[in-house]
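B., you asked whether I could sanity-check this one before it goes into the benchmark set. Here's the sequence:
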Amino acid sequence: MSWYIGNAFSLSMVQGSGTLKYQRATLDQVRHWVARTRPTSFFGHVDVANIVSKQLGIEIPTNRISVTLKPGDNVIVAQYIGPRLPEGTTELPEGARIEYVLVTLSVETRECVDYQFDENSEHGKLLKKAQEVARLVGGRAIVKKDNYENYYFEIEGRGFSASLWEE
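And here's what the prediction gave me:
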């Protein structure tokens, strides 16, 4: 599972099959994800990279690479909205903004019923956490596997859904 950050997203970045999901994100969420995952930059616009770096408090370099997403990968998109940026700018012009979106290519999974985890193993701890959350939301914890035999733990209940997986 890889993390990327850049100023654009294209469907040509998607490889294989899966479910493409996106969600708007706050600056605080993005700061958390960036600090936790250290995403690979694919910024092609130096001025937007500089503005985003300033907003996040961490250097995000310009890095003109091609990104191909595989199932499980995530992209933080910093979408500049506003007038054309003057070359060399380090501040957003009046009326301009950066909107953040998290794009995820979900992994195809299937329910798994033949699992046995030691309660002290990583999988055992994740299952216990999923079961605790499921109890809180009045739902259920589901153990799933992907095509690569990796385990995922999903929680569903009363309109709530979440996934836990080993990192």
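One thing to flag: The radius of gyration is 19 Å. Otherwise nothing jumped out at me.
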